[in-house]
Write a structure and sequence with these properties.
Blueprint (H helix, E strand, L loop, with lengths): L16 H4 L1 E6 L3 H4 L12 H15 L2 E7 L29 E4 L10 H8 L3 E7 L1 H14 L3 E10 L14 H6 L6 H12 L5 E3 L1 H5 L2
């Protein structure tokens, strides 16, 4: 994959040194999730729209946009590349020069060369968004913070699904999961994630607060 760095000729006029040192990490906003029954109960089924606003803002500012997809080869699940669902949700598209990474771990660092890309680009600050709030986006945020990056977590540009109680049987229909009083709902998941990250691992913000619109 060919990557192009910003130059004086293609850097937006309103870009700053801070923008040049910032990367938007778009995590797992992929068709795989929309193929599962549980997506019917997602906190924001249209999360790609908000993510798209962040991407547009990052490009306008001359910030690096990094796309990350989750892959589980050979599993036969919706995360198996052979199914054709390990691709960006319709409406989102990578531009030339924007890295596209495929991971097999929860966080976006461990099984990719993300840190190498960020180091080569002089990136010191990260903006994280994507699916799922408390899983791949949170773990990437935590690890990014531990690696020394200044991380901003855009909470309303993330989405998640209800989580069954650990003792609940696996593979239940969605209706049973939702009817179980022990199921952790999406609002609680998001709130707990904000509590865990804010002031410890990241600055928690919203699309409107970050973009000004």
């Amino acid at each position: 994959m060919t990557e192009t760095a910003n130059t004086p000729e293609n850097t937006p006029a309103n870009s700053t040194a801070a923008d040049a040192a910032t990367a938007l990490i778009v995590i797992d906003v992929q068709e795989s999730f929309r193929q599962r029954e549980s997506w019917q109960a997602a906190s924001d089924p249209e999360v790609a729209v908000k993510v798209g606003r962040l991407v547009a803002h990052a490009r306008e500012r001359g910030q690096l946009v990094v796309w990350v997809l989750h892959s589980e080869p050979g599993t036969g699940t919706v995360f198996d590349p052979a199914t054709g669902h390990v691709r960006l949700i319709e409406g989102l598209a990578r531009q030339d020069g924007e890295p596209l990474l495929t991971k097999t771990s929860h966080n976006a660092f461990t099984t990719t060369n993300l840190q190498q890309i960020l180091t080569e680009r002089g990136v010191r600050s990260l903006i994280t968004c994507g699916i799922r709030t408390e899983q791949c986006v949170e773990t990437t945020t935590r690890l990014g913070s531990d690696l020394g990056y200044d991380v901003t977590f855009v909470v309303d540009a993330t989405a998640t699904e209800p989580i069954s109680h650990p003792d609940a049987p696996a593979g239940r229909p969605l209706a049973e999961v939702l009817a179980d009083p022990r199921t952790l709902g999406t609002a609680d998941i998001i709130a707990r994630t904000e509590y865990a990250l804010a002031g410890r691992f990241a600055t928690v913000t919203t699309v409107k607060e970050l973009t000004g619109s």
